[in-house]
UniProtKB/TrEMBL annotation:
Coiled coil listed as a keyword: no
Taxonomic path: Bacteria, Pseudomonadati, Bacteroidota, Chitinophagia, Chitinophagales
Family indicated by similarity: Belongs to the SusD family.
Protein name, entry field: Starch-binding associating with outer membrane
A GO CC annotation given for this chain: cell outer membrane
Species of provenance: Niabella drilacis (strain DSM 25811 / CCM 8410 / CCUG 62505 / LMG 26954 / E90)
Pfam family, one: SusD-like_3
Length: 538
């Protein structure tokens, strides 16, 4: 076997001439090199912006709008929203090959694990690396499955020159893929430390706590309507059990609901975050602050929360929807008295930001060609950042898993499993308490389901959950198949608010719950394996 992964090799290997080849034995017989090989497998973890351009997956949902639609030039949120997609051209297409490349790297490492020596100064290190490779393989297969459903399971390194006919794989079922993911997680759990509290330099690596949280997420999806059309109740029971184990382990090992919601996304480390990856920097194209800040702050204003999301933040005093006449909502003062998470997530007309008042008719008017909702994200942004001088930034991370999700995973699975409304509601209300919101008091399964789904929408807004949640619940044909709105403001003193339509979104329930398999992958198999079929409708 020969490896061409220079990133995985120590410095002396990098000094070789370009024609030199590095053997697997050279890489894996040195534990430093083996660890560097594993490090590269982390490269394809999801990030705040998606491939090809700085767009957020939230803009392909009823959370945000992408002010500058570039879908004609390259696939982005606009393709999802207008239905302008095909197997040859659609957003996230590169993730098929990208995730499989990392799965192949996992397989290479696992196939050469016997070559990896012990570290006499860190006896657990060798097994930890194996656990990381197993957990990362599970994670990437889960990411493939939620996009494409049943996908080919490749669990060892394949050389096309040895058995060319074997590379034309069939698609395994969702049941088979899920079973493989759970098997990898079970083995990884026994090899990994619970946390890296004693070795903080290993922050960002997969831990046993990450494995427990991922199992909770995997089983929640597996029990959900898209993956469980027969509504096998036992799947919800399994998801509830996994959710309970993950939540208890987190709470017993120092993870918590951080007291300041906004800080979760601006502090590089805090005790709510279970797993994360470094986020993009602040400045220039693709910078968090550059892309999201309003125009008057010298930002691009490219990502705009929708009125639909704004309307779903309840009133703090009553805990009621703004559509409820008893809520206390005043349409003449629409931003007063809302759920505190609203102010930590969304900047709105009239809000104070960086020493001034946001004005979509003045300094914050959209650029030519932009279609803006006149709202901007607050989540992830640092008020200290000055985009005129490119100063004031600090490192941030993209949260992959956090404690609040575990509460909500457990609440949902327990409610759907039946018979535990009080405990399910208690988990839901723990998240509401942290936000300073009144308790939810209902107990009927259907009503509690809607309350939990609403809480996920608010608590996890702009964190890449909504896109997958509405699909696994099979409600995207409603949430993503309608007109979406922004806000217009006029006058001073007695301000007039209007809510113009920004776009008519479309969602075809006959095909859009799954992404199309990239046409290039279909072409590779065409005529060789009739079992490798395109997703329905594509």
């Amino acid at each position: 076997m020969v490896l061409l992964l220079a990133e995985a090799c120590s410095k002396n290997y990098l000094d070789r001439k370009p024609s030199d080849l590095i053997t697997g034995k050279e890489v894996f017989s040195n534990i430093e090199n083996a660890e560097k090989f594993v490090n590269v497998i982390y490269d394809n973890l999801p990030n705040i912006f998606k491939p090809a351009s700085p767009w957020m997956l939230s803009s392909a949902t009823d959370e945000t709008n992408q002010a500058a639609d570039n879908s004609v030039s390259y696939p982005d949120a606009g393709n999802f929203n207008t239905g302008a997609m095909s197997p040859s051209n659609f957003p996230l297409a590169d993730q098929w090959s990208g995730f499989y490349a990392k799965i192949r790297a996992c397989n290479i490492f696992l196939g050469n694990f016997e070559l990896v020596p012990e570290d006499v100064n860190y006896p657990e290190r060798r097994n930890r690396l194996r656990g990381e490779a197993l957990a990362l393989r599970a994670f990437y297969y889960f990411e493939l499955m939620i996009r494409w459903g049943g996908v080919p399971l490749i669990l060892k390194e394949q050389n096309p020159f040895d058995n060319p006919n074997d590379i034309f794989y069939k698609r395994n079922t969702i049941d088979e893929v899920t079973a493989s993911i759970l098997k990898d997680l079970q083995e990884a759990e026994n090899l990994l430390p619970l946390t890296y509290a004693e070795r903080p330099a290993n922050w960002g690596r997969v831990s046993k706590m990450v494995v427990l949280a991922l199992r909770s997420r995997v089983l929640l999806f597996y029990a959900s309507p898209l993956f469980n059309p027969a509504n096998d109740r036992s799947r919800w029971t399994q998801a509830a059990q996994a959710g309970k184990v993950a939540l208890d382990s987190a709470l017993n090992n120092g993870y918590t609901l951080h007291s300041n919601y906004g800080e979760i996304f601006t502090q590089y480390l805090n005790r709510e975050v279970i797993w994360s990856r470094p986020a993009p920097g602040a400045y220039r194209d693709g910078g968090i602050d550059q892309e999201m800040n309003p125009r008057g702050s010298n930002g691009y204003g490219n990502i705009n929360p929708l009125q639909e999301l704004v309307d779903d933040y309840e009133m703090k005093q009553t805990g009621l929807s703004v559509k409820d006449v008893a809520s206390g909502y005043n349409p003449q003062k629409p931003y007063d008295g809302r759920d505190p998470r609203f102010y930590a997530t969304i900047l709105y007309p009239g809000a104070a930001w960086k020493g001034r008042t946001l004005d979509p008719n003045g300094a914050d008017v959209p650029r030519s060609g932009q279609i803006s909702s006149n709202y901007w994200p607050r989540k992830y942004l640092l008020e200290s950042v000055n985009l005129f001088t490119n100063t004031g930034a600090a490192d941030r991370k993209w949260v992959l898993m956090r404690t609040a999700e575990l509460y909500l995973n457990y609440a949902e699975a327990l409610n759907e499993a039946g018979g535990a409304a009080l405990e399910s509601r208690s988990a839901l209300n723990a998240v509401r308490h942290r936000a300073g919101m009144p308790d939810y008091a209902g107990s009927a399964t259907d009503a509690l389901r809607e309350a939990i789904r609403h809480e996920r929408r608010i608590e996890l807004a702009l964190e890449d959950h909504r896109f997958w949640d509405v699909r696994r619940w099979k409600i995207a044909a409603v949430t993503d198949n309608k007109e979406v709105h922004g806000v217009g403001v006029s006058g001073s003193g007695n301000i007039t608010y209007t809510y113009p339509v920004l776009e008519k979104r479309v969602f075809d329930a006959g095909k859009n719950y799954w992404l199309p398999i990239p046409q290039g992958e279909i072409d590779k198999v065409s005529g060789r394996n009739p079992e490798f079929k395109q997703n329905p409708g594509w």
